[in-house]
Design brief:
By secondary structure, this protein is α+β, with helices and mostly antiparallel strands. 36% of the residues lie in helices and 18% in strands. The protein has twelve helices and 18 strands. A hairpin with a 2-residue loop joins strand 6 and strand 7. Helix 6 packs parallel to helix 11. The longest helix has 22 residues.
């Protein structure tokens, strides 16, 4: 392995204490901060690595910081709605760990004004300015060079696929549309996704694309390189995945934006929905080959149904608008439990876990080919799952129809974002998506209507809770699905 080109120096004592008052103000304003609405009571430093010593011009620190907050009350909201790509923002547990890249300068140039964290008046960096370093080209270039050279810097380990080349000198730019993580594009060749909320263990956003790459699945960009933090010797545990570098699909449009564009023009989306269904089935088929599957019988289904029922009860208690539909919605779960009691079983496998139109990329028709597929094709991205859910839960095998149900909800969101809403458009897309899925998988998800309804109901209940808490103006969208799923004409 090439020797690291970056000098490693232990950060100065008292660094976190001096940053504390600034981070209490800055962190809650970030889109990716999961504990909004609850005060930060303190910080604990998990790891700290000085990547560049703070000379006259620029310093850089990599920090893993645990933010302590009062425990959330009530049911955790889902990581986002089924429609737009604006995911993130679910309730956090006390003591969430965040990845921070802190730049240090004497003063910020005007171009870095949006990145300002604050000015330090005391501590080892007194008199200097600290800022979000991903806005700055030099720190972003440093990260790519470390991945290219497979550097080891303190407790940070930069790994890459030896079969993929990373050219030096690619110009970085921070993506401005942020979600629950941060992304940097390098020369329209690669995209580095830096995870913000860090948990120990194997992150599916690296695990699943690596497995799919081994299977030769062309629907998912294969990881080129990745960044991990080794366990602290004083507190041994599992490795932390911090970031993943993948090929960048130049000129691609995410499915949410593409669907809204076609809706605005009055264009049909059936062909795209069918192609997306085929792409989803190809990913599911490859995942079932690459990773173990399990059989779900009555005992496991009973646990799953109990979780759905519990979430429904909590949501009904939190959102009065759900109360008239509680019995009808609960019947979706009862019907599933009844089938399992009669002896029916289901196959569970690894799935995407948070599939919606915003997690799909459509490369331009007739565009250039990429290492993982040809132009004009659908790709699936962001296999992290719902960030608000525990990592162990996100890595559990589940029926593939869970992803299908989530995508069906996403078509509803797109159709009801139009003015006026276009429910017929959604129905055509939903049918085409399932037909395309059947073409590639050999099984139509609609042939398992009880499981499909249960998952779609569970998703709609989550959406109601999320919208009631965070975007009340969107509440009519999942409520329309609730009426359909709970009503006598639900079939």
């Amino acid at each position: 392995m090439p020797e690291a080109v970056i000098r490693t120096v232990a950060p100065p004592p008292g660094l976190l204490a001096s940053l504390d008052p600034l981070l209490r103000e800055w962190l809650p304003r970030q889109r990716w901060f999961a504990g909004k609405g609850r005060p930060i009571t303190g910080f604990t430093l998990v790891t700290a690595t000085e990547l560049l010593p703070p000379g006259a011009r620029l310093g850089l620190y990599h920090l893993l910081v645990r933010a302590h907050q009062p425990a959330p009350s009530g049911l955790s909201a889902p990581s986002g709605s089924s429609g737009s790509s604006a995911h993130g923002g679910g309730a956090a547990h006390s003591g969430d760990c965040y990845q921070l890249l802190i730049g240090v300068r004497e003063a910020l140039p005007p171009r870095l004004a949006p990145a300002l964290i604050g000015h330090l008046s005391e501590g080892p960096l007194a008199g200097r300015t600290v800022y979000e370093a991903l806005h700055d080209a030099r720190p972003a270039e440093l990260l790519l060079e470390a991945l290219r050279t497979r550097a080891r810097i303190g407790g940070l380990r930069f790994e890459r696929d030896p079969g993929q080349e990373i050219r030096p000198g690619l110009v970085p730019r921070l993506m401005t549309v942020e979600q629950s993580n941060s992304s940097v594009v390098y020369g329209d060749t690669f995209i580095l996704k830096l995870l913000r909320r860090i948990v120990p263990g194997i992150n599916p956003d690296l695990e699943l694309p690596l497995a799919l790459a081994r299977e030769g699945c062309p629907r998912v960009p294969p990881p080129t390189a990745w960044l991990v933090a080794d366990p602290d010797p004083a507190d041994p545990g599992e490795t932390h995945v911090l970031g993943v570098l993948q090929p960048f699909v130049q000129g691609a449009t995410d499915g949410w934006e593409l669907a809204l564009r076609e809706l605005a023009k009055g264009e049909d989306f059936v062909a795209e929905a069918r192609a997306l269904g085929r792409a989803t089935a190809e990913v599911h088929t490859a995942l079932a080959r690459a990773l173990p599957t399990v059989t779900l019988g009555h005992s496991r289904l009973r646990t799953m149904v109990a979780g759905m029922t519990e979430r429904l009860a909590a949501a009904v208690g939190a959102v009065p608008a759900l109360r008239p539909y509680a019995t009808g919605l609960g019947s979706a779960y009862t019907a599933l439990d009844d089938l399992a009691a009669e002896g029916q079983t289901w196959t569970a496998q690894r799935v995407h876990g948070d599939l919606h139109l915003g997690q799909c990329l459509r490369s331009p028709a007739g565009g250039p080919s990429h290492a993982f597929g040809s132009g004009g094709e659908w790709s699936l991205i962001d296999f992290e799952g719902e960030p608000a859910r525990p990592l162990a839960e996100r890595r559990m095998p589940q029926p593939a129809v869970r992803d299908v149900a989530a995508m069906l909800r996403s078509f509803d969101y797109a159709a009801r974002s139009a003015d006026p809403p276009q429910p017929d458009w959604a129905e055509r897309c939903r049918a085409a998506y399932c037909s395309g899925y059947a073409e590639a998988a050999g099984t139509d998800p609609r042939t398992d209507p009880v499981m499909l309804r249960a998952y779609e109901t569970d998703k709609a209940v989550y959406e109601v809770l999320y919208e009631a808490r965070h975007r009340p103006q969107w509440l009519p969208v999942p409520l329309a699905a609730v009426r359909r799923l709970a009503g006598p004409d639900r079939a």
